[in-house]
Amino acid sequence: MTKKLWRQEMIAQLKQQDPLLKMQTDQQLLEQLMTLKDYKEAKTIATYLSFDFEYNTSLVIDQAYKDGKRVLVPKIMSKGEMIFVPYDENDLSLSSFGVREPNSHQAILKNEIDLIHVPGLIFNHKGYRIGYGGGFYDRYLKDYEGATVATIYQYQLREFDPESHDIAIREVLIDETNDKRLSSY
C-alpha cells in the first residue's frame, strides 16, 4: 500500500473515533506524557495545533502552562521551512492546510527547545512515522538534539520500512488499551 493510501485510510479511521472514548484516551496519553523524565525536566516544549480527529494537543498546552513551561507551536514558512514560535491563543489564523497556525514569525532556536511533541498518522515499532506528506518535521528534526515524543492511538501503530530521510521519534506513547510504550533508542 502506498503512503498516500495509508494516510487516507488512517485519517478516515481517526475521524470515526467515538468522541467520548477519544477524550478519555487523550487524557490517558497526557498522563503518560507527564510521567516522562524528558517532560518533567523540560523548560520549553514544542507541540502542534491538532485537527479535531488527532490527539487533542490543547491538553498538552494547558498542562505545560500549569507546570510553568514555555510552549511553542509550529509555523510553516516559505520553501518548506518550519519554525517554532511562542504559543499565543489570541494570535492564530487558519492556514492553507486547514489547521490553526500562529501569525508570529518570532522563531525560537532549536537548542532552546527541550522536548518536541511530534504529530503523525502512522508509527512503526522503531518510532518512525508517516505524517501528512510535507516532510516538515523530518527536515526540522534532522539536526535537532533534544527529546522527541509522540502520543498515538494503538491502531496508528503499523509496520512499514522508513525511507532514508525519515527521522525516528525517541518515545512513542500509545494509549493504554494495549498498555504499550515504545522507545526508538
TrEMBL record:
A Pfam family: 5-FTHF_cyc-lig
Required cofactor(s): Mg(2+)
Amino-acid positions noted as binding ATP in the UniProt annotation, renumbered to this chain: 3-7, 129-137
Gene Ontology annotations of biological process type: folic acid-containing compound biosynthetic process; tetrahydrofolate interconversion
Binding site for substrate: 49, 54
Source taxon at top rank: Bacteria
GO MF annotations in UniProt: 5-formyltetrahydrofolate cyclo-ligase activity; ATP binding; metal ion binding
Matches recorded under PANTHER family: 5-FORMYLTETRAHYDROFOLATE CYCLO-LIGASE, ATPASE INHIBITOR/5-FORMYLTETRAHYDROFOLATE CYCLO-LIGASE
Record NCBIfam families: MTHFS_bact (TIGR02727)
Protein name (database record): 5-formyltetrahydrofolate cyclo-ligase
Phylogenetic classification of the source organism: Bacteria, Bacillati, Bacillota, Bacilli, Lactobacillales
